[in-house]
Amino acid sequence: MSKFSNITIEKKANIYFEGKVTSRTILFEDGTRKTLGVMQPGEYEFATDVKEEMEIVAGHLEYKLNGEEWKVIEGNEVFYVPANEKFQVKAVTVVDYCCSYISE
């Protein structure tokens, strides 16, 4: 899906790692939430509260989930992170991403 309709966008940005990772939260009428963001090249660690779907819209990213090996992902690919987990990423290039929060 390249466009979202009937959404609310939170004005305040989510800013991490001294501005090297930023995102905006979008809310849908059904209560679901996503963030649209950009990562500058670098290495970062994140933690989840709920299961997350990380869609890499553009860019080259390496990621590592707990207990797994590093994997490579490029634009138009998706990976999932379980709830209550930490994961590491290496943005090799500028990465454009969409994170969907999945309540199960």
Q: What is the element layout, followed by pairings?
A:
Elements: E1 7-9, E2 14-16, E3 21-28, E4 33-39, E5 42-47, E6 51-58, E7 60-65, E8 71-74, E9 77-81, E10 86-91, E11 95-102
Antiparallel strand pairs: 1-3, 2-3, 3-4, 4-11, 5-10, 6-9, 6-11, 7-8, 7-10
Beta-strand share of residues: over 45%
Mean pLDDT: 95
- The counted number of beta strands is 11
- Poorly predicted runs are none
Which topology does CATH recognise?
Jelly Rolls
Radius of gyration over C-alpha positions, nearest whole angstrom: 13 Å
Shape: globular
What can be said about the biggest beta sheet? 7 strands, antiparallel
Terminal CA distance reads 22 Å
How many DSSP H or I helices?
0
Descriptive notes:
With 104 residues, the protein is an all-beta fold. The chain has a single domain, classed as Jelly Rolls (Sandwich), CATH 2.60.120.10. The chain is 0% helix and 62% strand. The chain is built from no helices and eleven strands. One of its GO terms (molecular function) is purine-nucleoside phosphorylase activity.
